[in-house]
Amino acid sequence: MDVASLDRLIAGSRGDWPEDVVHATRDPKEKHLSLYPTEEAAIVGANTRRRLEFAAGRSAARAVLKKLGFPHGVIPMDQNRAPIWPAGTIGSLSHTADVCIGVAALSQHVQAIGIDVENLAPLESKLPPYITDPEELACIDSPPGLAALQIFSMKEAAYKAQYPLSQTFIDFDTLKVTPDGLCFNHTVPPFAKGTILPVQQWTGSSMCLSLCVLKRRPT
After folding, report:
1. CATH hierarchy code of domain 3-215
2. What is the pLDDT along the chain (219 residues), one digit of tens a residue?
3. 177 φ, ψ to 5°?
4. In principle, which of 29, 112, 115, 180 could form an S-S bond with 161, CB 3.0–4.6 Å?
């Protein structure tokens, strides 16, 4: 997995990629622009890998904001460790040890957004029972270990998208993969039981990329 492969995966998805959403990719192993003091304070005591991933994430975030016409500026972290995006925007970050991706959109078009990138490899056999069940696995056209990884990624992207609206920490059982899509197993205000969260997913080049975009309804 590398940034060039992630870029190719996204380029190949252009027919499905939401037009309101911009993206930027970064390599966490490379040195990126210096962090602002507020950002530095958020990772005091972090190890080298965490610092590199954080810097790559902030670099990607500033890149997508620039695409949306917003000036270069600090992107602080909230109490739940999520980035605080400038007013008028909504965004999401995800990374592995090898790649980082940031996505963003104007909040006048999009209510919430969640992104997740994973190495496309079967999960350890002990993990799937905590994440999924046989009914969900049957909805994914992949071997069980890979299907579990894909479901994990879908739920991660959906969690990031729903949290700004629900302000609720949810577990993997709260969301369920069905033939109709990923939905809430029970009510989590403002989401009613059965509400579908639209998650798109692309696989290839040894990676799995999931994107959940909740668009605003026309007024």
Report:
1. 3.90.470.20
2. 788 889 988 988 877 899 899 999 999 888 766 788 888 788 888 888 888 888 889 899 999 999 999 988 888 888 878 889 999 999 999 988 889 999 999 999 999 999 999 999 998 888 878 899 999 999 999 999 999 999 999 999 999 999 999 999 999 999 999 998 999 999 999 999 999 999 999 998 889 999 999 998 765
3. -80, 125
4. 112
